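Hey,

Quick one before I head out. I ran the complex with adenosine-5'-diphosphate overnight. Inputs first:
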Amino acid sequence: MTQPFLSIRGIQKVYGSVTAVKNVTMDIAEGEFMTFLGPSGSGKSTTLYILAGFQDPTAGDILLKGRSLLATPSHKRNIGMVFQRYTLFPHLSVGENVAFPLRIRRRPQAEVADRVKAALKLVRLEGFEDRMPANMSGGQQQRVALARALVYNPPVLLMDEPLSALDKKLREEIQYEIRRIHQETGVTILYVTHDQEEALRLSDRIAVFSQGEIDQIGSGPELYADPATRFVAGFIGDSNFVDTEIVAVDGKQARLALPGGGIIDGVPLHGAVRVNEKASLLLRPERIDLQAGNADGLLVGEVRDITFLGNNIHVLVAPSGAEPISVRLPFGHPTLAGLAPGAMVGMTFNAYDAHAFAS
Ligand code: ADP
């Protein structure tokens, strides 16, 4: 078996009575863009700080090309870092900020000048060497931080919510730049965010964190199409959850009774659920179809609200005895003609698009 490039093995971190990270294990390939995604407090930053060497784990190990990093102090790990708040030295020019990692490595002046120039070019700030950080926008300052982190060609770059202080438009612009820089340099990136859209846009794979553990690791499409847990299903993509009852179980599939009496067979089943127990059924708003009238449909309900969202239409449908369900139809869908709040509609969906979770 080939040796993984970066290996996080059974990392745990306990602070007094708080277990910030319970058990995190993953392998990261060279050149991969891996994102830690999860809500606030789920242990993403703590895991990243342990990689950076700012914290020691209570248990577990980190191996880079098969060698443990734990005994190596932070500044000798050769890992680049970019954080949420601008961490530039305010009294140093842009050029000197970027040169800093090379100066502490005592690189010759000619090499420093060349590398600073190349790093600033990489982040599209050519010629900004003499500017002071205070005279730059937030986005520009984060680009300088990125140039400084990459100037000595570290094999691994850690980024902790680097864009969260920027407004949406600037954030998207710099996301694009980060992608380009990742492709151009081939650096392995570990990126922390709580923003699913950012994670989907940037990553090769995403590790979904929940309460100090990883629920699932996969590409964006894998997590969306086949979520391993209800938490992942709710965190990636838009979702409805419907309370159902298990009628029969056949291996990894279930037959479910829906609110209102509809029955659906062949729904992929996650977790240990038994006949007659309750299960939570995931329905993606864009994978539900609507028919006018109440004759057809696995679920029948009353239209509560219709919202035009440009290329699609959001319809909120309330089945009796269940929470309202969000449905997204493409513009021009035939059922939309003449549809108004108060109308009864039938909802249909394919069993293989849905997922049942133990609830
Ligand atoms: P995230 O990055 O996902 O928001 P963190 O890794 O920052 O999560 O935190 C995980 C948990 O550990 C939280 O409950 C947080 O309050 C706790 N925690 C983090 N750092 C410390 C610390 N230095 N001392 C005590 N508890 C901490």
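The longest helix spans residues 168-185.

Talk tomorrow,
K.
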